[in-house]
Specification:
Elements lengths: L12 H6 L4 H10 L12 H13 L5 H15 L10 H9 L3 H18 L5 E2 L2 E12 L4 H7 L10 E9 L4 E9 L4 H10 L6 E4 L6 H9 L3 E5 L5 E4 L2 H7 L1 E5 L11 E16 L2 E13 L8 H25 L10 H26 L9 H16 L7 H6 L30 E4 L2 H14 L5
Parallel strand pairs: 2-5, 5-6, 7-11
Antiparallel strand pairs: 1-2, 2-3, 3-4, 6-10, 8-9, 9-10
Helix pairs in contact: 2-6, 3-4, 3-12, 6-12, 12-13
């Protein structure tokens, strides 16, 4: 069968692939796992990673369908490379032994390629801002998955994998992630992501179960935080009335350790948020008070900037999760063993990041529009079918450039549809405010005098 030559396919699938999967990357992967290819007759590191990625991009309803499409594409793109295996069982056996560091290196290669092609996808005004949140993927109900992931849902019980994600809020690019069993700590996974992020970056988070130690760990890691707080937080202030209405300096101070540790000083930002609620066919406007805390002073983060960044968290994380889990059909894992289920989840995240990265790279330098995962997936699928049929797909890069979100402004609220697992919006309860009375001020003065430090 005639294969398209390099000149005809200079902007096709292979060209776009090589912008991230460079020869230098594969050398790096072999350095990270120097013994992985030793004594192997098939499923070497390069085809294994590519088949894993292409399986994440496949819309097949079974693991077998995804595997056969992915392996056929690898064979077409690299006809003279070391052979991959022909069977799903061999692929899964090799995948289960793939070191996690390999996936981290591929993720870093996607990040580097995007940064080399244009501005940082997390840049919003003068801030490098990332949205962080957690979500879960269902896993098959096998004894191995139930034992490893844990059964953490109501009946019918399902084993779940918890994934914490980090999206660049400028262009909504999936930037980083960390995963674990369904009963793992979301706060710990998010802290893991923050610690390896760019120094000085600002992380935007919705309300959650975190406390004094978590806040201090974020600040001591030389990162910044903008987080919504609710009724599970107790905030101390000198003038509660003024702070509740206008924001200002508040303290976080664990009650059970008040005699041993100094309080943590943060800045409270409050504002009114208006949204629309539909009930019985009627549109009902609603207003709620949003309480945000940050370690940044007003000179480095104004009220308007804080409101904008927190508003960007929803389309960044929540819609980003929808694109990954629903558009790529990865809300349910298919692997029956936990080691393979984890790798399946990791490669599905890589697939989402890969599509977004291709769109941003195709747009080049200057102002870039937000990638559309749905459009990019459709264009990628069309290119894959062309390659499998022996035709050139030299149009891929140009088509990817146009895979961006529309700029229309919605004129009315979306139509509410009955959907499974729909979360009704419930306004958060306000945080608990406590006044710094004379006894607390005396305790604070004694502690600060003894420690010789002031709250940050």
């Amino acid at each position: 069968m005639h294969l398209p030559n390099h000149s005809m396919n200079r902007h096709g699938v292979g060209f776009c692939l090589r912008e991230i999967f460079t020869a230098a990357l594969f050398r790096k992967l072999n350095e990270v796992a120097p013994n992985f290819d030793t004594h192997r007759e098939r499923w070497f590191l390069k085809p294994l990673c590519l088949v894993g990625l292409f399986s994440g991009l496949s819309s097949g309803r079974t693991l077998g369908a995804r595997f056969h499409e992915a392996s056929a594409l690898v064979s077409k793109l690299y006809p003279h490379a070391k052979r991959a295996g022909e069977y799903l069982s061999g692929f899964q056996a090799a995948l289960s032994s793939l070191p996690q560091e390999i996936i981290a290196q591929v993720r870093a290669a996607c990040q580097s390629a995007v940064l080399a092609a244009g501005p940082h996808p997390a840049l919003v005004g003068r801030h490098l801002a990332f949205g962080v949140d957690g979500t879960k993927q269902e896993a098959p109900r096998t004894p191995q998955n139930e034992e490893y992931f844990g059964v953490v849902t109501k009946l019918p019980a399902l084993p779940l994998r918890l994934v914490a994600t980090c999206f660049g809020l400028g262009e909504r690019l999936l930037w980083d992630w960390a995963g674990g069993p369904g009963n793992a700590s979301e706060a710990d996974l998010i802290l893991e992501i923050i610690r390896r992020g760019p120094l000085g970056a600002l992380y935007v988070k919705d309300a959650g179960m975190v406390g004094y130690d978590w806040f201090r760990a974020v600040i001591e890691s030389q990162h910044h935080l903008l987080m919504r707080v609710g009724g599970n937080f107790t905030l101390w202030a000198e003038n509660v009335g003024a702070v509740v209405g206008e924001g200002g300096r508040v303290l976080i101070w664990p009650q059970d350790r008040r005699n041993t540790i100094p309080p943590l000083a943060l800045r409270l930002i409050t504002y009114q948020h208006t949204y629309v609620k539909r009930r019985h066919g009627k549109t009902l406007p609603r207003t709620e008070t949003v309480y945000l805390v940050t370690d940044l002073p007003v000179e480095e983060l104004t009220q308007a900037e804080a409101e904008l960044l927190f508003a960007l968290r929803w389309p960044g994380n929540e819609i980003g999760h929808r694109a990954w889990k629903r558009t790529l059909s990865k809300h349910k894992l298919l692997s029956e063993r936990p080691t393979n289920a984890e790798k399946e989840s990791e490669f599905s995240l890589l697939a989402c990041m890969f599509l977004q990265a291709l769109v941003l790279i195709a747009q080049g330098r200057g102002a870039r529009d937000i990638p559309s995962v749905a459009q990019a997936l459709a264009v990628w699928g069309e290119a894959v079918q062309a390659v499998l049929a022996g035709r050139a797909a030299a149009w891929l890069r140009e088509r990817l450039r146009g895979c961006v979100l529309d700029h229309y402004v919605r004129q009315g609220p979306k139509v509410q549809r009955a959907a499974p697992q729909r979360k009704e919006h419930k306004p958060l309860k306000p945080p608990i405010f406590r006044e710094l009375d004379n006894s607390i001020k005396a305790l604070l003065a004694r502690m600060l005098g003894r420690l010789g430090v002031l709250p940050v």
